């Protein structure tokens, strides 16, 4: 595993060597094999946890970690006891930010959408687009401009006899 450390000259890593590993590799070497100990990355360190607890709506999750919630979810089994606090942080952050995401998706104009989405992570952007699409579909339905419901061809000739044919 020495090839993981570009500054090292040996083919093996010394015990206690600190490296940044991709999540997939840390997951493969971490909990079951106990070859590595995982520490929380910058986006989830104590400083950012305090900021998120105070007011999660002001944080630019896109700049901090574009896949904040998904990344955090994958970290949960890797970080041991910190996983509990990380899980609570992810839940509370989403609770605080969800109202703003949904309000933005329902009430902002097309021009303002880019400004609102700029600070959202991937999950929040997905929720924003879904909420926006559902709102637009609802508005079409209220204006009676949605498609007329018709039966499909396979049900029109279902093989059942009509009451008039029986008598």
From TrEMBL:
Q: How does it assemble?
A: Component of the GINS complex.
Give me any GO biological process, just one: mitotic DNA replication initiation
User: DNA replication complex GINS protein PSF3 N-terminal domain spans which residues?
Assistant: 1-29
Record field: transmembrane: none
From the Swiss-Prot or TrEMBL record, give the protein name.
DNA replication complex GINS protein PSF3
Alphabetical keyword list = DNA replication, Nucleus
Xref: Pfam families: PSF3_N, Sld5
Report the locations given in the UniProt record: Nucleus
Under the heading PANTHER family, the entry gives: DNA REPLICATION COMPLEX GINS PROTEIN PSF3 (PTHR22768:SF0)
Which organism is this entry from? Answer: Scylla paramamosain (Mud crab)
Q: What residue stretches are annotated with the GINS subunit domain? A: 44-142
**Which SUPFAM superfamilies would you find in this protein's record?**
GINS helical bundle-like, PriA/YqbF domain
GO CC annotations on file: GINS complex
Name the protein family.
Answer: Belongs to the GINS3/PSF3 family.
Q: What does this protein do?
A: Required for correct functioning of the GINS complex, a complex that plays an essential role in the initiation of DNA replication, and progression of DNA replication forks. GINS complex is a core component of CDC45-MCM-GINS (CMG) helicase, the molecular machine that unwinds template DNA during replication, and around which the replisome is built. The GINS complex plays an essential role in the initiation of DNA replication.
Q: Does Transmembrane appear among the keywords?
A: no
């Amino acid at each position: 595993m020495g090839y993981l450390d570009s500054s090292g000259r040996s083919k093996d890593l010394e015990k206690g060597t600190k490296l940044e590993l991709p999540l997939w590799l840390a997951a493969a070497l971490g909990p079951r094999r106990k070859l590595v100990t995982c520490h929380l990355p910058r986006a989830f360190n104590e400083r950012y946890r305090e900021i998120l607890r105070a007011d999660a709506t002001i944080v630019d999750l896109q700049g901090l970690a574009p896949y904040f919630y998904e990344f955090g979810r994958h970290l949960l089994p890797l970080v041991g006891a910190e996983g509990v606090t990380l899980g609570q942080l992810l839940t509370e952050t989403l609770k605080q930010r969800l109202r703003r995401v949904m309000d933005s998706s329902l009430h902002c104009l097309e021009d303002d959408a880019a400004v609102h989405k700029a600070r959202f992570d991937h999950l929040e952007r997905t929720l924003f687009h879904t909420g926006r699409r559902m709102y637009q579909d609802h508005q079409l339905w209220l204006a009676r401009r949605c498609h007329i419901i018709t039966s499909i061809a396979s049900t029109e000739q279902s093989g059942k006899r009509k009451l008039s044919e029986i008598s």
